[in-house]
Design brief:
GO terms for molecular function: ATP binding; selenide, water dikinase activity. InterPro entries: PurM-like_C_dom, PurM-like_C_sf, PurM-like_N, PurM-like_N_sf, SPS/SelD. One of its GO terms (cellular component) is cytoplasm. It is a single chain. By secondary structure, the chain is of the alpha+beta class. It has two domains: 141 residues, PurM-like, N-terminal domain (60s Ribosomal Protein L30, Chain: A); 178 residues, Phosphoribosyl-aminoimidazole Synthetase, Chain A, domain 2 (Alpha-Beta Complex), CATH 3.90.650. Helices cover 40% and strands 21% of the residues. It contains 14 helices and eleven strands. The strands form two sheets. Strands 7-9-6-10-8-11 form a six-stranded mixed β-sheet. It has a five-stranded mixed β-sheet with strand order 1-2-5-3-4, with helices on one face. The longest helix is centred in the middle third of the chain and has 21 residues. It is globular, with a radius of gyration of 21 Å.
Length: 402
């Protein structure tokens, strides 16, 4: 892992040893510093970027044009190199790349992602970032990750004290989430950057039966969503508690306590791995999936629909939203476009195409294992590989976290 010379070597070395499980890490830590303790308690990580979380994504239509040349090169390479391999090569436009290997019917599954801080707790920000990277694997039904790398940008706006206290906390959160996923962080890259960034890369080697190609939806399937919407609204509303001119726009529809509960519900949701959801996709014969992140529910639904082999379309009827966040979004003049499906989500749930007769059992099973609901939100019908939300979708208020 490469570090800039301006990053405090002793503190970061301790965090790096902790990631490797080295007991000597504590010896490299500085003694308790009351100034650092106070800083951690009052710290606002979101000060170090002007965009939040997955709202940093290039617009979907622009991105499509930018990657056209890659798609052309990739298609030609596929024809030239992989005609003899039974495993399909998957890449541009989907959640992961799947590359057939030269040996033994195995394939390499990889993904990478990074974004800007959207919560103020550095440790939770690290956990959310790691969960977000892993979600791309889980969206393909891959439940085991063999290795992770961490990508970290240390903001030039941070003081030395802020950097030395906060960056190890982000790293620890990322590491702990990786351990929860049954994998480890073995390296990466850390640089100095105007804005703070956090993300990584996830890699696994697997057999074809360990992943689900997301192109087999059939007419009559239903759409299941495994996490509520509204994370971007919740984190913005929480930040507005300290901005009177913005808080005045929403205070008639939501209380300060409502906002704090929604914020904690959002953090809890974003840091939760989609691993169980991915495992159950195999049990209940899922026909495809994607994770809902920066393009919003509708953007990701449209992308998934466009890759289907059959002539089908997705129709979304229900929108599970963190409690009170639909009202907040409306009070803001619809700037988030939450009910239209365009609000960015960070480390959101899986949107899964399931056989109708399996969907209710899937939702019951995931609630039993995780303690959290999943929802049937739409249907797959005959169509031209598009997705839409009906004019007046049913908003399901998902209780906020106490």
């Amino acid at each position: 892992m490469s570090y800039s010379s301006s990053v405090a070597q002793d503190t970061l070395a301790a965090a790096q040893l902790e990631m490797a499980g080295n007991p000597n890490a504590l010896a490299l830590r500085r003694p308790f510093d009351p100034v650092a303790h106070d800083l951690e308690a009052s710290f606002r990580l979101t000060r170090f970027a002007d965009l939040k979380g997955r709202s940093c994504k290039v617009p979907q239509d622009v991105l499509g044009k930018l990657v056209e040349s890659l798609q052309q090169d990739y298609s030609q390479q596929e024809q030239d190199q992989f005609m003899h391999v039974a495993i399909p090569r998957i890449g541009i436009g989907l959640d992961c790349s799947v590359t057939p290997l030269r040996h033994g019917g195995l394939c390499l599954v990889q993904t990478t992602d990074f974004f800007y801080p959207l919560v103020d707790d550095p440790y939770m920000m690290g956990k959310i970032a790691c969960a977000n990277v892993l979600s791309d694997l889980y969206a393909m039904g891959v439940t085991e990750c063999d290795n992770m790398l961490m990508l970290l940008g240390v903001s030039t706006k941070m003081t030395e004290k802020e950097r030395d206290v906060v960056i190890p906390l982000i790293m620890r959160g990322f590491k702990d989430s990786a351990l929860e996923a049954g994998t480890s962080v073995t390296g990466g890259q850390t640089v100095i950057n105007p804005w703070c960034t956090i993300g990584g890369a996830a890699t696994t080697i697997c057999q074809p039966n360990e992943y689900i190609v997301p192109d087999n939806a059939v007419m009559g399937d239903v759409l299941v969503l495994t996490k509520p919407l509204g994370t971007q609204v919740a984190v913005n509303a929480h930040q507005w508690l300290d901005q009177p001119e913005r808080w005045n726009r929403i205070k008639l529809v939501v209380s300060e306590e409502d906002v704090r509960k929604a914020y904690h519900r959002a953090m809890d949701s974003m840091s939760r791995l989609n691993r169980i959801a991915a495992r159950l996709m195999h049990k209940y014969n899922a026909h495809g999936s994607t994770d809902v992140t920066g393009f919003g529910l509708l953007g990701h639904a449209q992308n998934l629909a466009s890759h289907q082999k059959n002539e089908v379309s997705f129709v979304i009827h229900n929108l599970p939203v963190i409690a009170k966040m639909a009202a907040v979004a409306k009070a803001c003049g619809n700037m988030f476009q939450l009910l239209q499906g365009h609000a960015p989500e960070t480390s959101g749930g899986l949107l899964i195409c399931l056989p109708r007769e399996q969907a209710a059992a899937y939702c019951k099973d995931i609630e039993k294992q995780e303690g959290y609901q999943a929802w049937i939100i739409g249907i797959v019908e005959k169509g031209n590989r598009t997705a839409r939300i009906i004019d007046k979708p049913r908003v399901i208020e998902v209780p906020a976290k106490d």
